[in-house]
Amino acid sequence: QVQLVESGGGTVQAGDSLRLSCAGSGRTFSVSAMAMAWFRQAPGKEREFLAAVTRTLSNTYYADSVKGRFTIARDNTKNTVSLQMNSLKPEDTAVYYCAASGRGSLLPVGSVQRYDYWGQGTQVTVSS
């Protein structure tokens, strides 16, 4: 059974930075063999794709809303994936989720349905 646990959320002011981390565990889990992604969900809104790193070529993808401000990175030695968030805005306030998939898929990297495993989420609040 794969488990993902996010950490690093909190309350910050606009313009500040935060770094989220997602640690994976499980008998067969290896972040290096997974497509990993970050999503977020604000109250009353759908879950929104933010960033992903692919399983094989480690290509990275970003939503337009965070491109240039957020950076996804995979650390194979620690079996973690991080999301560095800079220049945070009040509209970045949401619960942030880590997701993983160990299988190939024709679904877009930003599709919720592409990912089999999800963390419980960590709250990020940005005050103006």
Would you kindly provide a written description of the structure presented here, covering whatever features stand out?
- The structure is a single chain.
- β5 and β6 (60-62) form a beta hairpin.
- This protein has strands at 3-7, 10-13, 18-25, 35-41, 48-53, 60-62, 70-75, 80-85, 94-101, 117-118, 122-127.
- Strands 2, 4, 5, 6, 9, 10 and 11 form a 7-stranded mixed beta sheet that branches. Strands 1-3-8-7 form a 4-stranded antiparallel beta sheet, with no helix packed on it.
- It is built from no helices and 11 strands.
- The termini are far apart.
- By secondary structure, it is mainly beta.
Multimeric state: single chain
The beta-strand count equals 11
Derived from helix and strand composition plus strand pairing, the structural class reads mainly beta
C-alpha-based Rg, rounded: 14 Å
The H-and-E topology, N to C, reads as EEEEEEEEEEE
Low-confidence segments, given as residue ranges, are none
For the largest beta-sheet, the strand count, sense and barrel status come to: 7 strands, mixed
Distance between termini?
A: 40 Å
Q: Rough shape?
A: globular
**Mean residue pLDDT:** 94
**Share of residues in helices:** under 10%
Share of β-strand residues:
over 45%
- Number of helices, where a helix is a run of at least 4 consecutive DSSP H or I residues: 0
